[in-house]
Amino acid sequence: MSTKNVMIVGVGGQGSLLASKLLGRLLLDAGYDVKVSEVHGMSQRGGSVVTYVRYGEHVYSPVIDKGEADVIVSFELLEAARWLPFLKKDGTVVTNIQQIDPMPVITGAKQYPEELVEKMKATGAKVDALDCLALAEEAGSSKAVNIVLMGRLSHYFDIPEEAWQKAMEAIVPAKFLEMNKKAFELGKNA
Asked: pLDDT tens, 42-54?
């Protein structure tokens, strides 16, 4: 099997680290060689962050270069657009439609770009966009956006739901497990 590449992008504090750990655990349990990068970016300050998850028969580096990502999972719409050059020609973007204003928008120096989903689709990218924040709140916590996204991402993997549940049980703290299982289901079935 050739190496597959998943980028998880967002804004610091959104839970991308837990999402990458969950995906890494799932893929390890499925028998793949997996490399997960550390979170890169200003994760403590609300800045742009990215994590790479690469898996296959033999993976030698955790780094994904431009044009190599099979899937980009994005916690925030502008981040999906920002990292789009890393997507393969036939790749998929799984994105939350939430918009978090970056500093230039907050200060009034720039405006948040409009119609980002349509602009990404116009490049030829397959875009799966949904309101993960609303689904996370329905599950019981706005902090469950990461697990809603993992539920949505599960559509793009030939791995049984039981394996996703097992990985969640290994990664998610017990007191949050039921809420996260609900978030996963809502994302999967949205």
From this structure: 555 567 789 999 9
